[in-house]
Structures
1.
Amino acid sequence: MAVTTRKGSATRHEPLGLSLDDVKGMYRYMLMTRLVSERILQLNRMGRTPFGAGTDGHEAAQVGAAWCIRRGKDWTVPYYRDMGVAFVLGFSVLGEFRSVLAKATDTNSAGRAMLNMFSSPENRVLSRSVLVGTEFPHAVGLALALKLRKETDNIVFVFGGDGSTSPGDFHEAANFAAVHRLPVVFVIENNLLAISTRYEKQTAVKDIADKAAAYAMPGHVADGMDVLDSYEKTKLAADHARAGAGPSLVELKCYRYQPHTSDDDDSRYRTKQEVDEWRARDPVKRAREYLLSADVAEQELEEIRVALADEIERAIAQAESEPDPRPEDAATHVYSADHPLPDGTRA
Ligand SMILES: Cc1ncc(C[n+]2csc(CCOP(=O)(O)OP(=O)(O)O)c2C)c(N)n1
């Protein structure tokens, strides 16, 4: 077997201000996201969960971008595919399975909303609507509030897919943010598909980042299959916002390996060959190879995998043992108990 000299070939992280421990941490979150995502689909196929929305292929984009967020200071509005963002922001594997299994213990919505409607007031994560695009005006509203409160160093990160830049919500939000120079980073995970609608069927510009020009804001394109490139480009946008220079748009080019959701038949709109071509650029494998080229021992990476696999199985068993929401709680927090009903009484 050929012996390769690895030392010194992993030279990309230090110029970005990242330590090797940062890169190991990124890899751990990426692998966590991959393993949880795969397990959710398996549980669904076994009839143990009602629904799943895979994150596979988005790990580098999500973890790289989320590494720029300062927990508890910046605000984040993630979208439904952003499990990797959520993990970096402190959501746990157990919490994810509580959400997936719609348990009463789920901290996002007590098991009443769709999975992955992430919510964490203490970590400044705003729960969003499942309606595509609605997150952008909400995020810009948050950024306006930060500016009015003179929280000058704190900024907002809002995430969406390529399809979410088609509705008017995106354009109204981008325009307003640009006019008022609001501290917001629009992070778009472009996986070339919006369910079965391919990119070119709904977007005329070559890159989503080109849309930034219409609002006189910087637009950056990153290889979203590469965690360091995703971090670097998102960091440019974050620094810009923190400096008071206003919003930016970051496009992270990636691919989703699983069907859109567990209810989707992706064989109807893409070939296995296309998926395989993107699998050859697997973001988790690339991060692993980078660490090996930095002389991190395979044994250390294997220990990370074994610990995660164990954590996942314990989380599933724990979540499955917990109670479902009570039917009488279905409308809790949906209607205000203080609001008078038309006949003057209160609920
Ligand atoms: C306003 C609205 N229209 C349609 C839908 C149905 N829908 C759910 S996800 C989705 C595709 C979104 O694609 P994209 O933004 O590219 O994100 P991806 O799911 O590919 O990560 C659509 C059309 C929705 N949730 N909201």
2.
Amino acid sequence: MSFYTILKMQQETDYRIDIQHLTELIDARGAKSVGLQLPEGLLRRARSISKEIQNRCDIPVIISGRGCYGACDIDTALSEMVDLLFHFGHSGEDRENIVFVEVRSKVNICPVVQSAIAYLEGDRIALVTTIQHVEMIEEAKKILETAGKEVLIRCGSGDGLRYEGQVLGCNASAVDPRSDEVLFIGTGLFHPKGIASLIEKKVVAADPYTKNIELIDPEPLIRRRWVFLEKALDAHHFGVILSPKIGQYKQNVADEILKSARDHDIEAHLILLDEIREDALINLGMDAYVNTACCRIVDDMRKVILLNPDEFARLLRMRDRMG
Ligand code: SF4
């Protein structure tokens, strides 16, 4: 099924967005201008939200056209241009003029959970989902229990996690380690692949929109990372990437990496980069890079060696052992 078909289905099935609540916030704060930032899957709702706010509040609205991947990825330039920025689709702590607007899907997850049972081999299942579906997790649990499964649901820890069973692409702490395998309910493979590589368990990914079920085996994902690590053994110079995104800016981590590189006589350079794309890294011409921003960016690389900080630490230990 094509991306556009899925998008169309999502538009038809739609999400609940409480415009009344937004207009009350605008009134309460006396905002004279508003910015809207939405993730890709919701971007097509921007037009109707903008229209509603303009009609009801008679104030200018600016829609952020840049990509947005998580609560870590706020459009700070837009937040400086408007009195109030609504960031949709992720949970987070409101700050200054930035308000997080959680969005719930109206799609029924029960049919796909029922279908997923045939793919679950273990008895103990960790049940996880994204914020759009958290309200339906108890219904999913009942279906699995009726099928004789023990269902483990818990609240993860970390920025942006608020609900039982909620995961992020970079945080699978909601997965109970006692589970045999994981059932993920949600769209796409970004989250289930993240879970599989972070906790090294099989993930059954059940998409409530397409009704597709995918099995994610952690082994090839882990092997792929080792291939890059081995390639990095021969690298002479490293770029250490620092992101200016407010939720991904980690100066301390970058400083530590630079220090360890110095201690190991490795040439390293600090690079400030907003959108970390492979072509930009190729252009910079370093042998390899260490990424201090979103840990999932390494998955997008094909030709460039990009390591996360824990992988760089492992690389140094490997080099030490080799002498
Ligand atoms: S750091 Fe990456 S995976 Fe984690 S919330 Fe941000 S964009 Fe998503």
